[in-house]
Amino acid sequence: MFRKWLMAVLGTAVLAGGTLLATPGAASADPQEAIGHETRPGQPYGGRERARDWLGSYLVNGQQVWCVQFALTAPDSGEEYRPGDELKTKWGTSIPADVAANISYLLLRYGNTQSPDEAAALAHLLHSWTAAPRSQADLDPDNDFTRIAYDADSHYAKLPQAAKDAVDALEAEAEANRGPWEAELAAPEGQQTIGQTADWTLTVQRADDEGVGGVPVELSLTDAKIEGLASDGVVTTPEDGSPLVLKVTPTGPNPKITGTLSAPAERPYVREAVNQPDTTQRVVSTGGEQELSVEAATTAVTAPGAVHVGKVDAESQAGIAGVALRVTATDGSPALRQDGTPLLGADGQPAVVVTGADGTATVPDLRTPQDVKLTEVAPARGYEEAFDPANPPSVTGTLKSGETLELTLVNKPNTPTVPIRIPAGDPTAPDSGVPAGLLGLGGLAVVAVAGGLALRRRIADSGRKR
Question: Quick check: do 182-264+293-300 and 305-411 share a fold?
């Protein structure tokens, strides 16, 4: 039922601002009945019996309209109409607010119905509400067409059962869902992340705060896309009236969604015939609506990034544990977290991380894009010589959306030294203060020299014996 209304709202021109005005001078044509049922016999008036009545819509200049002055002349299909006042009874009295709201709702929902049962039901209700008898005298069959009231009970009894069911259903539906309506579109709290989907909610509520189902809403998007959105940009609230959940993915920094929908007006307005307005029926169409707007916006940022830094020995390439590194922007200000807050330590200064046993440290959940800098706070043990406090080792890089930035800081180890004493417990030469290992080398040298002298003497002595 509500799907039919969707087609009606989107495909029907509203009778406003001249949409039913015929071309001046155009030839008149006979009334053209559109959708509905005829009932037999017709309601007598003017002192004579009538063969039939038509409960349904008419076509005027190609558009479906509904008559609201029972028994007056039906409009010709080429009738010229102009905007009129708010809808009143056939007797010129104001329609109660709740009834007017019911009519607006039904015109909005069923003004372009293609169901004969719904059309007959709508026509019956319109006449019941606008031409109801003020007293029994208004139903006197001797009354002419200007004074006869609509005999609702008699007409209802002549309708097909399906049309009777539609009368009851439409009246109950109007009572439950008449305006005023309120519509709201809500974005999730906090920032979204570009490329990541989050739930937005669209709600249409009636006066008692209950949701209205089957309401089409046309959406326009900025910096966003909606999962499953049709090419015409129209979404429809769930039939049970619950909020419609929209799966929204930001595509830019300022996602925004606006929407428009038709809601029942407080009171419908009529159009009146230009020629013979006193005898030709006034008509209504889908003009019982007002436009509501919804809007929601938020901000979105790129996916967070992380920094993974390694501190390594320049010679062995082994990781260096326990190195403190300060995380900043390149200008020394704090780096930014994903939520835009500065990355600070307990002391209120830019945060410091310490490399673990493998010589690495990771800083997660950082805003992207941004340039970051990691600076050594103090030298690791065994790497003091190359550390310049005025220009400590540092490394910079640019964080990208959803990526981990890999950085490396290399430290040169201290220059190794030869100890002048061996560790306690090793043998040394008495009172020499020189390690025994070095004495041993000296002794070997001396032995070698003495051996050489002895060898030369033997050679010399051998020469003399010859």
Answer: yes
Q: Amino acid letter at 3?
A: R
Distance CA 441, CA 92 (A): 133
Contact of 122 with 268, CB cutoff 8 Å: no
Q: What per-residue confidence (pLDDT) applies to 199?
A: 98
262 CB-contact burial (10 Å; exposed 0-12 / middle 13-18 / buried 19+): buried
What does the DSSP 8-state code read for residue 258?
E
Query: Which residues is 36 bridged to in the sheet?
Result: 56
For residue 328, count CB atoms less than 10 angstroms from its CB and return exposed for 0-12, middle for 13-18, buried for 19 or more.
Answer: buried
Of 278, 274, 279, 269, the C-alpha closest to 66 is 269
Mean residue pLDDT across the chain: 86
Q: Which amino acid is at 123?
A: A
Q: CA 153, CA 170: separation in Å to the nearest integer?
A: 17
Q: How does pLDDT run across 335-357, given as a tens digit for each residue?
A: 999 988 999 999 999 999 999 99
Query: pLDDT for 236-262, tens place per residue?
Result: 999 999 999 999 999 999 999 999 999
Q: What's the whole-model pTM score?
A: 0.66
Find where tokens 């051996």 sit: 451
Residue type at 306 in one-letter notation: A
**C-alpha span between 369 and 366 (Å, rounded):** 9
Between the CA atoms of 362, 363, 364 and 365, what dihedral angle is there, to the nearest 10 degrees? -170
CATH homologous superfamily of domain 305-411? Immunoglobulins (2.60.40.10)
Cis check for the bond before 369: say yes or no (omega within 30 of 0). Answer: yes
Distances (CA, A) of 188 to 6, 201, 246, 255, 374: 28, 8, 11, 11, 35
What is the distance between the alpha carbons of residues 355 and 322, in angstroms, rounded to a whole number?
5
Please state whether 252 falls in left (phi above 0), alpha (psi between -120 and 50) or beta: beta
Radius of gyration for the chain, computed over Cα atoms and rounded to the nearest angstrom? 47
The residues spanned by each domain of the chain are: 21-179+266-284, 182-264+293-300, 305-411
Instruction: Using alpha carbons, select from 183, 185, 187 the residue that is nearest to residue 211.
Output: 183
- Please, which residues have CB within 8 angstroms of residue 379's CB and are 6 or more apart in sequence? 386, 387, 411
The fold adopted by the segment(s) 182-264+293-300 is Immunoglobulin-like (2.60.40)
pLDDT tens-place string over residues 347-391: 999 999 999 999 999 999 999 999 999 999 999 899 999 999 999
